[in-house]
Structure formats: structure tokens, C-alpha cells
Design brief:
The complex is a heterodimer. Chain A is α/β, with parallel strands linked by helices. Chain A contains eleven helices and nine strands. Chain A folds into two domains: 14-138 and 292-306, Aspartate/ornithine carbamoyltransferase (Rossmann fold, 3-Layer(aba) Sandwich), CATH 3.40.50.1370; 140-290, Rossmann fold. In chain B, helix 2 (42-55) links the parallel strand 2 (33-38) and strand 3 (63-67). In chain B, helix 1 (9-26) crosses helix 2. The chains are: A alpha/beta, B alpha/beta.
Amino acid sequence: MNHKKLSVNHLLGIKYLNISDVNLIFETADFFKELINRPIKKVPTLRDITIANLFFENSTRTKLSFELAQKRLSADIINFSASQSSIKKGETLIDTVKNILAMKVDMIVIRHPNPGTANFLSKNIDSCVINAGDGTHEHPTQALLDAYSLKEKFSNLENRNILIVGDIMHSRVALSNIFLLKMLGANVKLCAPRSLIPHHIESLGVSFESDFKKAIKWCDAVNMLRVQNERMNQNYFPSIHEYKNLYGLNLSLLKSINRNIVILHPGPINRGVEITSDVADSEHSIILDQVQNGVAVRMAIIYLLASKIIVPK
Amino acid sequence: MSKKEILNKNQIDTILNRLACQLLENHAFLKNTILIGLQPRGVFLLDKLTEILLNKHGINDVNYGKLDITFFRDDFRRLDKQLTANFSKMNISVEGKKIILIDDVLYTGRSIRSALTAIDTFGRPIKIELLVLIDRRYSRELPIQPDYVGIQVDTIQNDKVVVEWEGTKKSDSIYLIKDL
């Protein structure tokens, strides 16, 4: 690894990164992955950095993963969740964040239901911002850990066929994955009911196939997304039962393609809907690898961004 | 700028043989001891020592590891350049073992302080010693001293000590570079 730095001061989305940034994050994550498998998994690097985790939306995996990554790096952390905050009393986002920053916080990790929140914050506050998911826009750390996990399997994603199945319309994971997989040279195909595919998605250089049984024969890896009922304000398909039959991944379908493919899922899983338990827990699944890699990749991102925060003289 | 050779290949060989003998004398043929080279430059010295222990003393089961200290350094965010990490290769438990940290040059002592913290992540050794090829005297910023020394050199802050190893350079050699 050379003396490289990230080209950005915030992680707002994959579309703001270049290939050197991604490679640097992956190289750094390799070191942290070795480190978090030691008997003592903590390094003192970020002992003078304070990070605020601002979660305006529910999260289990991402929040825990960020917290663990920060603790492994010895950062001080404060956690904020919208349900227990003064947001309920009418405080604006910018006021909330400025008050938190007045407590000498160096870095903000934010999840928010509104697309563009992380960008907005980065332009209005003097602190490093990491986007942990902004509405249906981007979820860059998830895409990075997905691609990192795929690279562990394939070593190189150039010309690999990656299929993303499910609720593309409401998925920030899908958008970030498309940007990153295309950057790494993979072929990306989307598969879902047409009603769950955004218009003009082909302009991102991806193809579309509505027949899941046909699409899965094409791929080397499949990323099964959850149907995001909480973001749906109308019915996008007739019934969950029909969705499961047409777009659910089960063992008999997996066996029918006579080939080993890698299965990813960003979680949380709706077992029995987009994926059956026997497939989610099978040897083809790297779902738990994704979770472990998530900590290493987030450590790398936090470390690399923190290295750009100037120490006051 | 002046560049002066302070040790040539023959002199380095003599010193390395002496250091290997000292290790054997103090560590009962290294049965309960692990040699740990600090990444990146201490690893070259580690390789030389294990080669001597094998070829001249017939010890083919030396326990050794390679330790990276990047994420334990105290100058993170205080350098213009990004710190460069290397892989640690520690396939052996340090719990209850004697450790000899190996590095080419001992200067401020800060790398060794970081290594002492880093080694703790692999367990609790019963004893840790330090072996260096070059001890830059009067340059320490921390109360750290070596147990095994190749040679001591007197330097000032702007001086540089450059250790070159055969394989990456023409021959084993050590230079003192003075900024005149």
C-alpha cells in the first residue's frame, strides 16, 4: 500500500468515490480484518476522535457494525436516535447536529429517511460526514462491504455477472451496489416485478430481466433484496405469495441451475419471502461473511477519513 | 549532504553471528522464545538471524512472527503522508512466551512503544526483550533501551541511518547520511 489518501473528506455515496478510493478502502480493510480476528481486537489509533452516530431511522446491523468498528478503533462515541430526541419537540436537523458538534465531535455517521441528508449536512457543518443510508438514495458502506465480500470469493469482479433481485425501487443498497459493481467492471442485471424497477434505470449501464428463473442461470452471484413495505405507499405487486413464487430464492431453484453461485443479502432477511431458510443458511450464502466484513470495511472507512481530520496545533 | 558507510557486509555478518550467539546463550536454544520482526524493515533482520540460527547452529524450529505497528502508532493524523500498513503474520500464540522484538534501527523509541502495545493484542508474554542492529544513542524520546545491540552510533536529529539489505540493494550495508 502506498502513501495514498482518499480523494474525499466525507463518504456521502459511491458515486463520489473513484476506483483508487475503493481499492484503498479494500486494502485497508484487509489489515483490519486480520486485526479483528486477534485475541484482543482493539487498536488505539482513534483515541482522540469523537464520533456521533445519528440514526433517524431504525437500524440493527448497520448501527451495531458502525459502533463496533468505532470501538475497535478506540474512538469515543455518542449515539442518538430520533425517537428519543428533541426532533420530536420541533428542532431542525441542522440545529440538532450543530448542538452535537458544539460538544466537540469530529465525525458524524448519519442515517436519515430523506435522500440527500448526508450531502446537505456535509455542506452546512464543519465535520466529517459518513452516510449510513439516506432514504432511497445511497448506502455506500453496505455496497462496499458487499463488493469486498464478493472480491474475497472471486478476487476480481471484472466481467463477473451479478444479479440484484427484489425491491430496486426503494433500495438504497441497490443503487450504491450498481454504482460500485459497475466501477469494478462487473456486469449487473436487475430482476424484479417491473413495478419495482425505477424508470430509466438502464441509463446506469445495467440490464433488466423480469423472469427470475432465467436471470439466475446467468449470474455468478445474486444479491437478494428485501421488499421494503415501510417505504411503499401503494401495492406494487398483487400479493406476497405471488412475489415469493416468482422472485423468491429456494433450494429447488438453486439446485436446478446446476452451478455454484454466491448468495448475498444485506439483511434484515424476510425468511420465506425473498429467500428460504435452507438457502440463507446454505454453503452458497455469504450473508454472515458480509456482516463480519462490514466491521472491517467500516473500520477502514472511518480510519481513512479520520486521517484527514487536522490535529489542532 | 555526506554519505558514509559505517558497516560493510563482512562487519554486518560478524555482528549478526554475535547477536545470534547471544540469543542462544540467554534463551536456552530459543525453546520458549519467539523472535518477532517489526514490519517492514525489522523483518529483513529477522530473516538474517533465522538463517544464521539454521545454517550455523542447526536450529530449524525457531518460532517467529512479523508484527505491523501501523494502527498502534502515536503519530496518526500528525504526518502529512498516510501511514502505510503491512500485514502481521503471527501464527503462534505469545501467551506465556518470551518475546524478542527485532528492528533494524532504534531511534526515538516510539516504534518500540507501539510494538509493545501491538504485541499485547496477541496475548500476554512473560517477558519482552529488544534486539536492534543500530542504536542511535542520545536520540530517545521515551525511556526505552535495547537488550541486544549490533552497534551504537552517535547522531543528531537531522542525520539519517540507512540500512540496505542484499536482495533489495546491491549488498548488505549501513550508511550514515549527514545533512551538512
